[in-house]
TrEMBL record:
Record-given protein name: Acyl-CoA hydrolase
Family matches, as PANTHER family: ACYL COENZYME A THIOESTER HYDROLASE, HOTDOG ACOT-TYPE DOMAIN-CONTAINING PROTEIN
GO biological process annotation, one example: fatty acid catabolic process
UniProt signal peptide: none
Gene Ontology MF, one: long-chain fatty acyl-CoA hydrolase activity
Top-level taxonomy: Bacteria, Pseudomonadati, Bacteroidota, Flavobacteriia, Flavobacteriales
Gene Ontology terms: cellular component: cytosol
InterPro entries per the UniProt record, alphabetical: Cytosol_ACT, HOTDOG_ACOT, HotDog_dom_sf, Thioestr_dom
Source species: Pseudozobellia thermophila
Highest taxon above the source species: Bacteria
Domain HotDog ACOT-type: 1-109
Length: 133
């Protein structure tokens, strides 16, 4: 799993227990899944369809640095299924896992559109292949 994004837990991210608010971390996960999918599918019109069970395993406190990891589980015809782990950057302790996040590729009409992708592509590889043309 690749960890792409880091977040610094600030006072506005805390709940009444002075630990990371679950809703805040879920918003970060949703945003990271969307960004990852947009880059993979090369389409800005991507939406979250489904999130499976969310497993809160530990917490973070103000000042902690967390990182969000995403990996592809499978490519569908118009969808991308991801899994996610959020962990403490310094201790590597897992904070949250989500086994399945389904993101759907949309066309201009707002309906699911086939994306034609079969495997993970890295931007650096796309750039290298376009330079060779």
């Amino acid at each position: 799993m690749r960890f792409h994004t880091r977040k610094w837990v600030k006072p506005e991210d805390l709940n009444a227990n002075e630990t990371l608010f679950g809703g805040r971390v879920l918003a970060w996960i949703d945003e990271e899944a969307a960004l990852y999918s947009i880059i993979q599918l090369e389409n800005k019109k991507v939406v979250t369809k489904y999130m499976s069970e969310i497993n809160f395993m530990s917490t973070a406190k103000q000042g902690d640095i967390i990182e969000i990891g995403i990996e592809v589980v499978k490519f569908g015809v118009s969808s991308l299924t991801l899994n996610c782990e959020v962990r403490n950057k310094m201790t590597r302790e897992t904070i949250v896992t989500v086994d399945n996040i389904i993101m759907v590729n949309l066309g201009d009409d707002g309906k699911p559109k086939p994306h034609g992708k079969k495997k993970v592509e890295y931007v650096r590889d796309r750039l290298a292949s376009s330079e060779g043309n």
